[in-house]
Each structure stands twice: as C-alpha cells, then as structure tokens.
Design brief:
By secondary structure, the chain is of the alpha+beta class. The chain has 19 helices and 14 strands. The chain has two domains: 281 residues, Butyryl-CoA Dehydrogenase, subunit A, domain 2 (Beta Barrel); 183 residues, Butyryl-CoA Dehydrogenase, subunit A, domain 3. The structure holds flavin-adenine dinucleotide (FAD). Flavin-adenine dinucleotide binds next to strand 5, helix 17 and helix 18.
C-alpha cells in the first residue's frame, strides 16, 4: 500500500475497538471523542502532506524493494543526502505541529527502521528475533502505520528491580510460553498518544538485573489486542470554545496513557527479544536505536523556535521590546535557538557510516541537544511568563467576545500597542498562556525534561561515554611542558 492519506488513517482508527478508559468511562467512538478529535485531525494532516505535491518529493521516497512510495522515516540512510531527506520529513511534520507533538508517526517509524537495520545484533541471540524485527519493519513501512511505545515501568518502588516488586507482575513480564506465543501480564507507564495509534511497541531502557529475565522483552502488537487496557490521564482541554480559548491545547494535546496488559497474547512472529538480560541491556548501545535522536533534535529545535517567536511577538504586541531587560531575555532565547540549530547541523555534517553501511548523525552533538533542551526550554517558558506578566492571566474568553454588551469595553481595554486590536492581543496572549501557563504547557515542559529518559542519568552516561573516547591529553601536554622547562633550568 505505501503512504496513507489522513482519511485512511482515520478509517483505520474507526475499524478498531481498543479498550480505552478516559475520566472513568470507556471510549467507544474515538474519532468523535472531544479530547481526541482535533489531535486526530492534526495527525491526519501529516499523512495528507505525504500526498501534497508541495511536500511529496521532499518527505516520501520510492521504496527500492516494493516500488511503492513510503515515508522518508523508513529510509535506511547510507549517506548525507539520505540523512537530509529524512530530516526534511522531521522538519515538515514538526513545523506543522510547531514541535508540540513529540510522538508524531515519524518518531517510532525511524526507531523501528534503525532496530531492523541492526539484524546481526538480534541474530547473535536468536535468528528468529532478527527475522521478526525485519518483517515488522516492512509491515509498518508498507502499511504506513502509527506506533506508540511504552518503555518504563510504573513508578512503584524505584529502589528495587522488577523481580523484587510487591507483585511478580507489577512490571510487564512473561507469564508463560504457548504454542502461539508469549502471554504477558503487568503494566508499562506512559505510552504517549496510545489511544490514537495503530500499534504499540515495547522495549526498555537498560538496567535489568539478574532475576529480571521475564521482564527483559521487546515486542509489538496491535493497539486493540485483547486484554490490553489503555488508561488515559486527565485531559487538559477545557472551555466552551476550545479553539479560541485554548488554541494550542485543543489541537496538539498528546494524550498519555498507562498500558495494562491482562494476559495478552504476543504472537511469536512479533517477539523481538525475550528472557535475555544482556540483549535487553545492550539494545540501545548496540543497535541504531538512537537514530531517533535525530528526530528529537529537529523537533526540539522547531519547538524552541516557536517559543522564541511567541515571546518576541508578546513583547512587540504590548510595546515592551524597547526595554533592555526584555531585549536581553529575547536575545538569550534566540541564542538558545541558534545553539541547538548549530548542534543539529554539526551532527548532520559530522555523520559517520557504521560497519553495516548505515549513515548515523554524530551522537555527541545530538546528545548535547538532549542535555541542553531540558534547561533551555523551561527557560524559554520562564521568559514568556516574565514578558507576558499579569496580562497572561487576564484574557477574556471567546464567549465574552460573543457578548454584544461587552464588546465595546473589550475593544477599548484589551488592545495592545498602536495597531494591535483587542482581538489580536487576546488571541496571542491565549496562545502564549497555553504554552507557558496551562496544564498543557506544563506537560510540554515535562516532556522536554523526560521524553527520552531521565536527564540526570543520561548526562552521567554521556560523560562516561565521552571519557571512554577522549584521553584529555592536553593536560599531559601541559604537564610535559612544565617538566621540560625544569630540565632546561637544571
Ligand atoms: C510528557 C511525557 C511523555 C512521555 N512519553 C513517553 C512515551 O511515549 N513512551 C515512554 O516509554 N515513555 C514516555 N515518557 C516517560 C519517560 O521515559 C520517563 O518519564 C523517563 O524515562 C523518566 O522516568 P520516570 O518518569 O519513571 O522517572 P523516575 O525514573 O522514577 O525518576 C524519578 C526521580 O528519581 C531519580 N532517579 C530514579 N532512579 C534513579 C537512579 N537509578 N539513579 C539516579 N536517580 C534516579 C530521577 O533522576 C528523578 O529525579 C514520557 C514522559 C513524559 C513526562
């Protein structure tokens, strides 16, 4: 089939009946459910872009194997040009969502592509796993599927490994093997967008301890698999006219969910790893799994750029950007954007080709982006809060604007500097408040901190890996210089 349209994506959602719980009730009609409707349309728009002549050649490609057009997320990059084709997709989709949706389909499509392009890693443990991951890659490529993923265990007792939790199946683990496949039970915390995806893939960050064998697994199944329950967090949209009152939250809310597996069957051909602690702990470092950091970097840059532009427009709208303190904050923000942009370009230009012939962006600049964004993005939000100040809280609602009796007051007292009408200023401030004040905006901050693991441990791992590859020899050279001088003076 190759690339899907938005309508095909929506028809796929309509054809399934996943067990979704939202605010104490079961969702039966996902595409007409208020909280999901607009985000579904935003994702559908991305699929439609694949058919838009303006984008098609930039973000899709003809698959050599099938002759069908597929998303650029499925390219196994061989050179710089391939990396740039993939980047064009990341960028076009991130710009369409202002970087506010982190888990658009390209994220996991590129993740599975990179897993499948490391068959030797899986083969050393079990040739069937290698075959399964490669077939799965082809399946999602040829059907253009949208995946969610759930890596981490629920936050019950982080001081103990999985096998020492209160219940053997608090964390997701294998109950038994059957002729058809594995039966799995337990929970994974946090699968973003799960309710509106086609499939879920399970794998984990490293950290398995001896005794954790049953939890060391990776697989993918349809999101409506029997026994799989999706528990949504509280929705963040509200207001009578959500598009007016919450212009970002109403469009780009990525629902997060806990996944509960009640004895779910995972067919053997969908098992990518099982009962192997060493394999599970090495999945990240020994496969190209980190290729998705390229998507993260591009999307993160677009999001920070958006925040910087919102801050600048706020300052302009109320005539405060002539003040030095406001200018320095905006300057700081723009320099953060330029830092991320430069790191991304460095990662792309300094790509390397691995032993399998796969082009990989340089990891140090990408990991540096990963380290900087959890500080740069919250700072951007703080700057928006500081520049918008009290006005951010004082916007009337869309319903107020509908009241003829109020209109004169609103037009008179809510306008901005000369030339900025009340409606323009209020719309801008509502957008800014969604980004910097509402629960939606706070989630976006939390996302930037945690979307790819705990930044604290990541930075520690970054340092240890950097240390392994760098000898810090300048210090020796400097010390040698001191010795030589001593020798001469003696
Ligand atoms: C908005 C959002 C969306 C997300 N989307 C997804 C998704 O789609 N799929 C997915 O799989 N995950 C997703 N995540 C989850 C993300 O992977 C985790 O939040 C992240 O890995 C951190 O794990 P945790 O939240 O369980 O925190 P914990 O690991 O419980 O950490 C809590 C605190 O304890 C500290 N801590 C815990 N253990 C240690 C240790 N061993 N050493 C030192 N310090 C420690 C941490 O530094 C932190 O301060 C998402 C998270 C957010 C916020």
């Amino acid at each position: 089939m190759g690339i899907r349209t938005g309508e095909q994506y929506i028809n796929g959602l309509k054809s399934r009946r996943p067990e979704i719980w939202l605010s104490g009730r079961k969702v039966t009609d996902i595409v007409n459910e208020e909280v999901f409707r607009q985000p579904i349309l935003e994702i559908a728009k991305l699929y439609d872009m694949q058919h838009d002549p303006e984008y098609q050649d930039k973000i899709t490609t003809i698959c050599e194997e099938t002759g069908e057009r597929v998303s650029n997320a499925f390219i196994v990059p061989k050179n710089y040009e391939d990396l740039m084709r993939r980047r064009a997709l990341f960028e076009a989709w991130a710009e369409s969502t202002f970087g506010l949706m982190g888990r658009t389909p390209d994220f996991l499509n590129v993740t599975v592509t990179s897993m499948a392009s490391s068959p030797d890693f899986f083969e050393q443990y079990n040739p069937e796993w290698a075959e399964n991951i490669q077939n799965y890659y082809k399946y999602i490529r040829d059907n253009d599927l949208f995946l969610t993923h759930a890596l981490i265990n629920p936050q019950n007792d982080r001081s103990k490994p999985s096998h020492q939790q209160k219940d053997m199946f608090t964390h997701l683990g294998v109950v038994e093997e059957t002729s058809e496949g594995l039966i799995v039970r337990g929970t994974k915390m946090l699968a973003t967008l799960a309710p509106i995806t086609d499939e879920v893939i399970i794998y984990s960050f490293p950290g398995f301890k001896p005794g954790d064998e049953r939890y060391a697994l990776s697989f993918a199944i349809p999101i409506d698999s029997p026994g799989l329950r999706i528990l949504c967090r509280e929705p963040m949209q509200n207001g009578k006219r959500p598009l007016f009152d919450h212009p970002l939250a109403s469009r780009f809310e990525e629902m997060d969910a806990v996944l509960v597996f009640n004895d779910v069957l995972v067919p053997w051909n969908r098992v990518f790893m099982y009962n192997n602690i060493e394999a599970a702990n090495q999945l990240y470092s020994k496969t190209g799994l980190s290729q998705n950091t390229h998507q993260n970097g591009v999307r993160g840059l677009v999001k920070l750029r958006f925040a910087a532009q919102v801050a600048a427009r706020l300052a302009d709208a109320i005539g405060v950007d002539g003040y030095l303190n406001v200018q320095t904050q905006l300057g700081e923000l723009i320099q953060s954007v330029e830092t991320i942009r430069a790191l991304l370009r460095t990662a792309e230009i300094e790509f390397s080709v691995n032993e399998r012939g796969e082009a990989i962006p340089a990891s140090v600049p990408l990991e540096t982006i990963r380290g900087i964004l959890p500080r740069a993005y919250p700072r951007a939000i703080e700057i928006i809060q500081t520049i918008g100040a009290g006005g951010l809280l004082m916007s009337p609602t869309g319903s107020d604007f509908d009241q003829v009796d109020l209109r004169e007051d609103l037009d008179k007292y809510y306008g901005g500097r000369s030339g900025v009408s009340a409606l323009e200023r209020v719309r801008l401030f509502k957008l800014a408040w969604d980004l910097c004040g509402e629960a939606f905006g706070q989630r976006l901050v939390q996302y930037e901190r945690y979307y790819s693991g705990d930044p604290v441990r990541k930075l520690g791992m970054f340092y240890m890996s950097y240390k392994q590859k760098h000898s810090f020899s300048m210090v020796d050279e400097a010390l040698d210089g001191v010795l030589q001088e001593k020798t001469v003076s003696l």
